[in-house]
Write a structure and sequence with these properties.
Blueprint: H1 2-18, H2 23-46, E1 51-52, H3 54-65, H4 73-80, H5 89-92, H6 96-103, E2 108-116, E3 119-129, E4 132-141, E5 149-156, E6 163-166, E7 178-187, E8 197-206, E9 209-218, E10 227-237, E11 240-249, E12 253-260, E13 266-270, E14 275-278, E15 283-284, E16 293-295, E17 300-306, E18 316-327, E19 332-336, E20 341-342, E21 352-356, E22 360-366, E23 378-382, E24 388-389, E25 393-398, E26 402-408, E27 418-422, E28 428-436
Length: 438
């Protein structure tokens, strides 16, 4: 039976591998993702919170989804054994924590629907724990859903912590009568309420017409508690220090709380290879299709890894061997968009300002072998008067020779130079941190 199910999934992978993702569609999807990330960022600022890395994650999701679906007989059987879940297989692959949650019957069916005019939305099921919730839903219609766009998502529940959303699946170009998607809502703090009733609102736009679904649902079974390891250990990589405070292991993901030493001479931008590793060398790496971290403004971050919750290793270690970092004075890009100058460009000049004007800026990095730098490296923009300049349209693409990043500014009355926040850059510090959790 496993072979048959695996063959079906292999055929799906081959089909997706052969799919050409039109650039126009990719650009649109990336732009929508970037716009959504920008909205979340603005909303987050209003709440005195900061979402870190979400723009890079959106781009990574779109680039890896089409080409990478991992198939195993156990996973194939687990997905196929749950009615209705097999249609979400491409949204579940690439995450060992999700694989394990499904294989351990932690997915809960919901089956609540709402019909508005000719469209029906069904909340198929959820995976809920103290760190977040994954909601699998389907929209169906007798009329074509080609061009459907998810405009916004809202989720309410008693005592639900603030957090970040990831959503929006790419549809094929042809006529479609079914749209499926996975919403990932990542809580900023552990959610320990035993009230598991939610009210989900999903607004879609199709051919300029908006439809707003509002679907209450209750998760029937109580969630599993997280495992928390208090660490409080200072780490030094090439003279740059940070403190690992604690590790929280939940079914959906692992949160690693870290505080950065404010006296560092370099700003640590990304913990690129942070991972959990057991005594046999099995690894649980970073999240590939969701928010990668919270925090930042007070030097405290929570980074997220794929979960090993359902495994029972004898030994478990937290390991970090490489971080991205820049000198503090280079950890933002000071750019004059009228003269096309990057005034404080890092000496390695790996990324360059290709062209700019008051509407637009394009950065470029020459490719180095097959290795890809998947991050959208630029954050918010502040002008010389200290006023924020929005970047409502941003994008990233890679051709045969180079990786390109584009930003469009929402106004032209700002004063140069612009100060652009950097939250990723291909400059690395290497070390060998290994902390025993158990």
């Amino acid at each position: 039976m496993y072979e048959k199910e695996e063959e079906r999934l292999k055929q799906l992978k081959e089909h997706l591998d052969q799919q050409h993702l039109p650039l126009s569609q990719a650009d649109q999807a990336i732009r929508q993702g970037m716009e959504r990330a920008q909205r979340e960022k603005r909303e987050s600022r209003k709440r005195q919170k900061r979402i870190f890395g979400s723009v890079a994650v959106v781009a990574l999701l779109l680039l890896t989804f089409i080409t990478s679906i991992r198939v195993s007989p156990v996973f194939a059987h687990a997905v196929a054994s749950i009615p209705g879940l097999e249609k979400f297989v491409e949204l579940i692959a690439m995450d060992k924590g999700l694989d394990a949650a499904i294989q351990n019957d932690y997915y809960q069916e919901i089956g609540v629907t709402q019909t508005i005019d000719d469209k029906t939305l069904t909340v198929d099921g959820v995976i809920l724990d103290e760190s977040g919730i994954n909601i699998f839903y389907t929209i169906e219609s007798n009329h074509s859903l080609k061009g459907l766009r998810v405009d916004y998502i809202n989720l309410k529940a008693e005592g639900i912590p603030e957090g970040s959303f990831s959503y929006g699946n790419v549809m094929d170009e042809g006529e479609n009568y079914t749209y499926k998607d996975r919403i990932t809502y990542q809580f900023s703090e552990l959610y320990t309420s035993r009230n598991q009733s939610f009210d989900l609102k999903i607004a879609i736009k199709l051919k300029g017409e908006e439809t707003v679904f509002s679907v209450p649902f209750t998760v029937p079974e109580q969630i599993k508690p997280s495992e928390v390891y208090a660490i409080d250990k200072e780490v030094d990589i090439k003279g740059q220090k940070f403190r690992v405070e604690k590790v929280m292991i939940s079914p959906l993901r692992v949160g690693v709380k870290i505080s950065i030493d404010p006296d560092n001479t370099m700003k640590i931008l990304q913990f690129e290879d942070m991972r959990l590793e057991d005594e046999k060398g099995e690894v649980w790496g970073s999240i590939r299709n969701g928010t990668t971290a919270f925090g930042g403004e007070d030097g405290k971050y929570t980074f997220f890894l794929q979960s090993n919750y359902f495994s029972q290793p004898e030994k478990l270690y937290l390991r970090i061997n490489k971080v991205q970092a820049l000198k503090v004075e280079e950890a933002f890009a000071e750019v004059n968009t009228e003269t096309g100058e990057w005034l404080n460009q890092p000496k390695d000049q790996k990324i360059q300002l290709l062209q700019s004007n008051k509407h637009h800026a394009e950065f470029i990095m020459k490719n180095s072998g097959d290795e890809e730098f998947p991050f959208f490296f630029i954050g918010s923009a502040i002008d010389a008067n200290g006023e924020e300049v929005e970047t409502p349209m941003t994008g990233k693409f890679r051709d045969e020779e180079a990786t390109h990043w584009n930003l469009n500014f929402d106004r032209t009355d700002y004063v140069n130079p612009l100060r652009l926040e950097l939250f990723a850059y291909p400059n690395y510090l290497e070390g060998d941190m290994k902390i025993e959790l158990k």
